[in-house]
Design a protein that fits this description.
Helices cover about 50% and strands about 15% of the residues. The chain is α+β, with helices and mostly antiparallel strands and about 140 residues long. It folds into two domains: about 60 residues; about 45 residues, no CATH class. Strands 1-2 form a two-stranded antiparallel ribbon. A two-stranded antiparallel sheet has the order 3-4. Strand 3 and strand 4 form a beta hairpin.
Amino acid sequence: MAVFPLTDKRPIEVGKPKLELVDNSKSWFRSIGIILILLISIGFFSRMLLSAMIVQRQTQIDGLSESIAELDSDNRSLMFDIAQLESTKRIMRIALAEPGEEFETVNGLGMIIPEITIYLDPLSNESLQGWQWRQISSQRQGQ
C-alpha cells in the first residue's frame, strides 16, 4: 500500500500558468466528425420511426380492407335475401294461401284469382284524382 503525503512539498510557482496552443486542425476534425455521427444517428432514428409509422398505418389499412370485404359479402347476402322475399312467386303463394295457413312465417291472405282483369285509364298523367271508368283492356284469367 502506497502512502502519499497530505501536502505537496513542491514549491508553488506564482506567475503565469502553463498554457498550451491547441492544434486547430485536430479539434475541427473532431467537431465535424461528432456532428456527422450525430446527424447520421438522427437520420437512422428518423428512418426507423418513419418505417414503424408506415407499418402501423398499413396494418390499419389491412384491417379496414378486411372489414370492407366482410361487409360487402354481408351486403350481397342481404341483397339476395331481399330478391327472394320480393319474388313474384312468393308473393302469389302468400296472397293465395288461406288466412290460417302460414307460409314462410307469414300468414296467408286468402285472396282469390279474379276471373277478369280490367285496366282503367286516368284522366291525365298529372292529376290522378278522378278516373274515367272507360276500360282500356281486359283479360280473362283462363286465357
